[in-house]
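Methods: holo model generation. Sequences were used as deposited, without trimming of termini or removal of tags, and paired with ligand SMILES retrieved from the corresponding compound records. Each pair was processed once, and we did not select among multiple samples. The sequence and 2-acetamido-2-deoxy-beta-D-glucopyranose SMILES for this entry were:
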Amino acid sequence: MATLVGILVSLFALEVALEIGTQTSESHPSLSWELNGQRQTGSIVIDSNWRWLHDSGTTNCYDGNEWSSDLCPDPEKCSQNCYLEGADYSGTYGISSSGNSLQLGFVTKGSYSTNIGSRVYLLKDENTYATFKLKNKEFTFTADVSNLPCGLNGALYFVAMPADGGKSKYPLAKPGAKYGMGYCDAQCPHDMKFINGEANILDWKPSSNDENAGAGRYGTCCTEMDIWEANSQATAYTVHACSKNARCEGTECGDDDGRYNGICDKDGCDFNSWRWGNKTFFGPNLIVDSSKPVTVVTQFIGDPLTEIRRIYVQGGKVIQNSFTNISGVASVDSITDAFCNENKVATGDTNDFKAKGGMSGFSKALDTEVVLVLSLWDDHTANMLWLDSTYPTDSSALGASRGPCAITSGEPKDVESASANASVKFSDIKFGAIDSTY
Ligand SMILES: *[C@@H]1O[C@H](CO)[C@@H](O)[C@H](O)[C@H]1NC(C)=O
Ligand SMILES: *[C@@H]1O[C@H](CO)[C@@H](O)[C@H](O)[C@H]1NC(C)=O
Ligand SMILES: *[C@@H]1O[C@H](CO)[C@@H](O)[C@H](O)[C@H]1NC(C)=O
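and the model returned the structure below.
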């Protein structure tokens, strides 16, 4: 009986799952990296949101920023009718890899479309993301952000997304990690076309300023550790805990005025040298010289986690992180509870970091393994001013100045035309014991 039910369930699942297209075979660019000193032959996969989504022929299920009402009359039918296509990584998306190095291009003019930015995940094998347990470990990589102007963000971070892309838990998500499914982050993004394999078509609103994106009823929330958000002008590393990792609806998503009522700490606690008082530390030809590749070391101290440290290595020289130098914050060079609590008071920012459990809450959240994300993006919401400029733009409060970029910089339409050729390079990824990877 149980077997019969099992068979019926899987037949049903088979019938309604999102399917895999056969126009382009999926061939993941390889990327080698080091785990505990051992070379790993990994690869990367582009997120499902960037992929062509069409019916059993070549008719679009999603075009520009709108869903086909014929093919997607309801979420289940949409998953049933639609096929997620394989990716031409270099031709369509401007992504190339060689050995231990990965380059993401910004604007790529393909034969059918113009692609803007990308988001990729590290795979352990064809069908499974590589996963990391960060506590008491060290993560190191080399970033080249010399070709990233104001307004762009070459990001490397971890999120608590499922290792199989959600496939085992949600039969609708059949393409799984092999097709880059299952993304979530601490902003609880509403722009995901599929969440738990279900099309996010309900209440879908095409974006007013992004011809490729929109927002559906559901968001998808999970804990996020931003190791590196950067361009040539500014950089930050940031902790964002969520009280759970789940699809959200309504208040849980923490949208708009309810920003602090959701399940994630959207503001996070960040360390940005410029923001915390050192304007001569990171940038072109500065102490950490962003006109050249720089090796970035991040240490997760303790279990439970109590501190997240940063060290840079460049030109064979180890460069200790800058110390904070603003009034109201003790001079420190790492993220701890004390630093976060002091900087929230000094800036007058809401302390959602503490409200969501502080370091111990984040430490608990990191019991869940996390997946490595590498991306290049421009910002249709805030022009990346929160990273590299003054934000809020009319504020002179402590902490409002985050980098040297003009408050008028970073408009997507401007950067997409003026800096179409921008790109970021990530290489030499290493993970292991503290002080073993640099
Ligand atoms: C910035 O950091 C450098 C290197 O750590 C240090 O020598 C310098 O004094 C710092 N400047 C400020 C304003 O804190
Ligand atoms: C803080 O900045 C001042 C100059 O603005 C500098 O003299 C001092 O060395 C800095 N302190 C630290 C700890 O970097
Ligand atoms: C981008 O690169 C291409 C090829 O290298 C070149 O032809 C084009 O002029 C460049 N565009 C810009 C805006 O720099």
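The first helix runs from residue 2 to 16.
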